Please model this.
Amino acid sequence: MFELKTLLLFAATALAEIVGCYLPYLWLRHDRSAWLLLPAAASLALFAWLLSLHPDAAGRTYAAYGGIYICFALLWLWLIEGIRPTLWDVAGSLVALAGMAIIMFGPRHA
Model:
């Protein structure tokens, strides 16, 4: 159950970070409204709060989170931006997920 809770929390964290970064990107690169900065700031605040909910040490959490973030960024690329990830993108994300699993769920020696 710990593993599922960790993965779901990482997923919510990644989504909050991606939204918080994508909205300013739309404003800066695609000439959208500056009002997008308000929900972007809220989303990044949510991201920081969600990242603080993980029970493990901050450094370990940040390192492992990167693997989930990579996968979510590629899903975003595909589902939101309409660009299908390449085989190399998928392979890289699987390597990142393996690293995340090793970091978060590997045995700990006290």
Summary: DSSP finds four helices and no strands in the chain.
